[in-house]
């Protein structure tokens, strides 16, 4: 029977991170500051890269795209969460919930693919410097970035389509601060066992696959530099180590949430904070504060702005 004959739910109630007023105020302050830092930090990176001709290499082109994705990714969940933290009734309409679910997976999976591409870029730059320009040409960079977006869209539309095929007739309470596939489909008035496994294999395998590609890239990089570590190579490895730390914070919680049997734990929503807020917050810090070229470009940009 068609979904319209079953679906009586017109909105979902988000329980959020806490029902204690004092904690809600504290969370609002922390996450508002975090969101502000994400926006300002990533916008600064985008403006710096776009205005400085010296930052025209593929690495900075990919970094600029990562900053744009981080802005989009955090904007899918944090503004809504901030509003709910100050509201007594945390309701979201059915269509809004599905839209949030779609854009969360669209941007999130696109970022996973992009991080894998960035790891490949670093491997090529360090291990194959003579062929780097030919391999990572401008055309190749655009093709890789567009493929990341296309892959993210294909993944997200699959997850969303599987979700809206289910009938929802109550209950309508989601124990989280945003709409995601697993907590939403558990509210369906139907047998969702097969759907849960299909979604887990989709999201989980993408997270695990991209993470394994990252580990493979960095492992090959370490092996190629073994025994010939110059000062430049040591600096490159230090940078890669910090990048690996950030992507681990992003991927491991995603793998934990999505690649497992259909079940839920009370602390799942706190694990989600790591990859929806903490990881995007750390990206601008790790990718810029450890990069002298970006810092020097930001200083030149600040001096130019100060003149006016």
From TrEMBL:
It holds the Pfam family 7tm_4. Its main location: membrane. Keywords: Cell membrane, G-protein coupled receptor, Membrane, Olfaction, Receptor, Sensory transduction, Transducer, Transmembrane, Transmembrane helix. Residues 41-287 form the G-protein coupled receptors family 1 profile domain. InterPro entries: GPCR_Rhodpsn, GPCR_Rhodpsn_7TM, Olfact_rcpt, Olfactory_Receptors. SUPFAM superfamilies: Family A G protein-coupled receptor-like. PROSITE patterns: G_PROTEIN_RECEP_F1_1, G_PROTEIN_RECEP_F1_2. The chain crosses the membrane at residues 25-47, 59-78, 98-118, 139-158, 204-225, 237-258, 270-289. Signal peptide: none annotated. GO terms for molecular function: G protein-coupled receptor activity; olfactory receptor activity. It is a multi-pass membrane protein. One of its GO terms (cellular component) is plasma membrane. The keyword Transmembrane helix applies. The keyword Transcription does not apply. It is found in: Cell membrane; Membrane. PANTHER family: OLFACTORY RECEPTOR. Belongs to the G-protein coupled receptor 1 family. This is Olfactory receptor. It comes from Pipra filicauda (Wire-tailed manakin).
